[in-house]
Amino acid sequence: MSTSLKTVDFEVFGRVQKVFFRKCTQEHGKQLGLRGWCRNTPEGTVIGTIQGPPDKVAEMTAWLRDIGSPASRIDKLELKNEKSISDYTYSDFDIVRKKI
Protein backbone atom coordinates (compact mmCIF):
# COMPACT_ATOMS: atom_id res chain seq x y z
CA MET A 1 0.00 0.00 0.00
CA SER A 2 1.60 3.24 -1.12
CA THR A 3 -0.79 5.59 0.64
CA SER A 4 1.24 8.37 2.17
CA LEU A 5 0.94 8.38 5.94
CA LYS A 6 2.47 10.66 8.52
CA THR A 7 3.54 10.08 12.10
CA VAL A 8 4.29 12.71 14.71
CA ASP A 9 4.99 12.70 18.45
CA PHE A 10 3.32 15.37 20.55
CA GLU A 11 3.45 16.88 24.02
CA VAL A 12 0.74 19.20 25.31
CA PHE A 13 1.47 21.63 28.16
CA GLY A 14 -1.07 23.42 30.36
CA ARG A 15 -3.97 22.15 32.42
CA VAL A 16 -4.33 18.85 30.57
CA GLN A 17 -4.58 16.29 33.38
CA LYS A 18 -7.76 15.46 35.31
CA VAL A 19 -9.80 17.30 32.64
CA PHE A 20 -10.58 14.30 30.37
CA PHE A 21 -7.89 15.42 27.94
CA ARG A 22 -6.71 11.90 27.09
CA LYS A 23 -10.27 10.63 26.59
CA CYS A 24 -11.12 13.55 24.30
CA THR A 25 -7.83 13.09 22.43
CA GLN A 26 -8.60 9.41 21.89
CA GLU A 27 -12.16 10.14 20.74
CA HIS A 28 -11.11 12.92 18.37
CA GLY A 29 -8.28 10.80 16.96
CA LYS A 30 -10.66 7.92 16.29
CA GLN A 31 -13.21 10.28 14.68
CA LEU A 32 -10.49 11.36 12.26
CA GLY A 33 -9.47 7.75 11.59
CA LEU A 34 -6.08 8.18 13.21
CA ARG A 35 -4.05 5.67 15.16
CA GLY A 36 -1.61 6.13 18.00
CA TRP A 37 -1.62 6.62 21.75
CA CYS A 38 -1.54 9.23 24.51
CA ARG A 39 -0.73 9.24 28.21
CA ASN A 40 -0.11 11.52 31.17
CA THR A 41 3.43 12.27 32.26
CA PRO A 42 4.68 12.81 35.83
CA GLU A 43 5.45 16.42 34.77
CA GLY A 44 1.76 17.17 34.22
CA THR A 45 1.77 17.08 30.43
CA VAL A 46 0.14 14.70 27.97
CA ILE A 47 2.34 12.98 25.40
CA GLY A 48 1.61 10.65 22.53
CA THR A 49 1.97 9.71 18.91
CA ILE A 50 -0.52 10.17 16.08
CA GLN A 51 -0.43 8.42 12.72
CA GLY A 52 -2.56 8.76 9.63
CA PRO A 53 -3.11 10.70 6.40
CA PRO A 54 -1.22 14.03 6.47
CA ASP A 55 -4.39 16.16 6.30
CA LYS A 56 -5.96 14.30 9.25
CA VAL A 57 -2.73 14.52 11.26
CA ALA A 58 -2.69 18.28 10.61
CA GLU A 59 -6.34 18.52 11.73
CA MET A 60 -5.51 16.61 14.91
CA THR A 61 -2.46 18.72 15.76
CA ALA A 62 -4.56 21.87 15.31
CA TRP A 63 -7.12 20.36 17.72
CA LEU A 64 -4.37 19.53 20.24
CA ARG A 65 -2.97 23.07 19.97
CA ASP A 66 -6.19 25.09 19.96
CA ILE A 67 -9.14 23.10 21.34
CA GLY A 68 -8.48 20.08 23.57
CA SER A 69 -11.03 18.91 26.13
CA PRO A 70 -13.70 21.37 27.33
CA ALA A 71 -12.09 21.88 30.78
CA SER A 72 -8.48 21.98 29.60
CA ARG A 73 -6.22 24.97 29.15
CA ILE A 74 -3.54 24.47 26.51
CA ASP A 75 -0.43 26.58 26.96
CA LYS A 76 1.80 24.97 24.37
CA LEU A 77 2.00 22.08 21.90
CA GLU A 78 5.35 20.60 20.93
CA LEU A 79 5.65 18.33 17.90
CA LYS A 80 8.66 16.08 17.33
CA ASN A 81 9.84 13.33 14.98
CA GLU A 82 7.40 14.22 12.22
CA LYS A 83 7.97 11.99 9.20
CA SER A 84 6.31 10.04 6.42
CA ILE A 85 5.70 6.34 6.99
CA SER A 86 4.59 3.57 4.65
CA ASP A 87 2.44 1.70 7.16
CA TYR A 88 0.89 2.11 10.60
CA THR A 89 2.81 1.12 13.73
CA TYR A 90 -0.38 1.10 15.83
CA SER A 91 -3.67 -0.72 15.28
CA ASP A 92 -5.90 1.68 17.20
CA PHE A 93 -5.82 4.90 19.25
CA ASP A 94 -5.14 3.95 22.85
CA ILE A 95 -4.85 5.64 26.20
CA VAL A 96 -1.74 4.33 27.95
CA ARG A 97 -2.35 4.37 31.69
CA LYS A 98 1.01 3.40 33.14
CA LYS A 99 3.58 5.98 34.14
CA ILE A 100 7.16 5.52 33.02
From TrEMBL:
Residues 7-97 form the Acylphosphatase-like domain. The active site is at R22, N40. It catalyses: an acyl phosphate + H2O = a carboxylate + phosphate + H(+). Its EC number is 3.6.1.7. Pfam families: Acylphosphatase. Keywords: Hydrolase. InterPro entries: Acylphosphatase, Acylphosphatase-like_dom, Acylphosphatase-like_dom_sf, Acylphosphatase_CS. It comes from the Eukaryota. One of its GO terms (molecular function) is acylphosphatase activity. Belongs to the acylphosphatase family. This is acylphosphatase. It comes from Macrosiphum euphorbiae (potato aphid).
